[in-house]
Write a structure and sequence with these properties.
single chain; Rossmann fold; 5-stranded parallel beta sheet; two-stranded antiparallel ribbon; 7 strands; binds thiamine diphosphate; binds magnesium ion
Length: about 325
């Protein structure tokens, strides 16, 4: 047992390793994008610990409606890095056959629903899935995570309202990273995000999303509440987007407050300091974990890159059980 609540040292270490592997993958994928290997990426740097905490508390039967900035969550759910990269690369092993933008995952076997590009669009779907669970009397809860910007969409309102009206098992988790691309949170909403729960008649709580223990405590309390059938719950995890919004963004145009890797506000460094102070780990072990993560990610990227892209004619698959004449005609005209 570690001195922190009921967490074992192994659980803390495995949370840390997950965050380090996720950040390493982020860095490698951005480099791959710069080399033209991957088309686009939305890094999770700064949000690793909050997402890892969510992943640690999920049950197998839970249904996840995530968003595009989710590497650490996917990895903590046990989704192999190879599968993540297949989608990013849009290769033949990609379940989506290369038809989606990178970062727009679908992992049916992990109950991870397809990521939506329009901000907030997945939230009514999450509420709908929770309604289906109730109607079919099935186990599990729905977890929907999203950014601060999503709380200003009408879809957020519809999802929160119906989740409460129908007393559904949905846990809404806002990853408040301070920005919606170039717009700081305070310019898109004046209210505290967790207090928006009041308007819908559900509990809301703010946690320090850069701190593993605060995140785990808040999210597990909220999950217990939702699992017991008392209704939906809103968690606001305060984190910080350390880098650019995406590989298409240049944050130097609008921000001067950059948080650098290794600063006190970096959630990974904060967990390192905690583990060091508890004598759980030393600097040499930290370096070794990071070295292993770099080696792992280099090897997986190298392996998955070799898988060819889908054949162009595969674009005509999956639309109709029998090919329609119009598809045949189109195929003949372009292939
Ligand atoms: C409905 C809609 N409006 C605008 C966009 C363009 N857009 C993509 S991401 C984004 C910012 C979203 O910010 P937030 O919800 O805080 O998530 P974050 O990217 O910070 O994780 C915007 C405005 C979009 N995809 N969909
Ligand atoms: Mg944001």
């Amino acid at each position: 047992m570690s001195p922190i609540g009921s967490l074992s040292n192994d659980q803390i270490l495995s949370a840390y390793e997950n965050a380090v592997r996720s950040r390493t993958l982020d860095i490698k994928v951005v480099n791959a994008q710069r080399q033209g290997i991957i088309g686009f990426h939305v890094p999770s740097e700064g949000q690793e610990i909050l997402q890892t905490a969510i992943g640690m508390l999920l049950h197998k039967e839970d249904i996840i409606f995530g968003y595009y900035r989710d590497f650490s969550l996917l990895m903590k759910m046990g989704i192999p890095v190879s599968k993540i990269l297949d989608q990013m690369l849009g290769n033949q092993a990609d379940i989506e056959k290369g038809r989606q933008m990178p970062d727009h995952f679908s992992f049916k076997e992990y109950n991870f629903s397809t990521i939506q590009s329009p901000v907030g669009a997945h939230l009514p779907l999450a509420t709908g899935a929770a309604y289906a669970l109730k109607y079919r009397k099935e186990e599990g809860i729905v977890v929907a995570n999203f950014g601060d910007g999503a709380t200003s969409t009408s879809d957020f309102h519809a999802a929160m309202n119906f989740a409460a009206v129908f007393n559904l098992k949905v846990l809404f988790i806002c990853e408040n990273n301070g920005w919606a691309i170039s717009l700081p949170t305070k310019k898109q909403t004046v209210a505290d995000i967790y207090r928006k729960a009041d308007a819908y008649g559900m509990p809301g709580k703010r946690v320090d999303g850069n701190d593993l223990i605060s995140s785990l405590n808040g999210i597990s309390e909220a999950m217990d509440y939702v699992r017991s059938g008392k209704g939906p719950y809103l968690i606001e995890g305060v984190t910080y987007r350390m880098g650019a919004h995406s590989t298409s963004d240049d944050p130097k145009k609008y921000r001067v407050d950059e948080i650098t890797d290794g600063s006190d506000n970096d959630p990974i460094r904060r967990l390192e300091k905690l583990m060091l102070s508890m004598g759980m780990i030393n600097e040499a072990q930290i370096s070794e974990i990071k070295r292993r993560a770099r080696e792992e990610m280099d090897a997986v990227i190298e392996e998955r890159r070799k898988i060819p892209k889908p054949e162009p004619e595969s674009i005509f698959e999956d639309l109709y059980s029998e090919p329609a004449w119009i598809q045949e005609e189109e195929k003949r005209s372009i292939l």
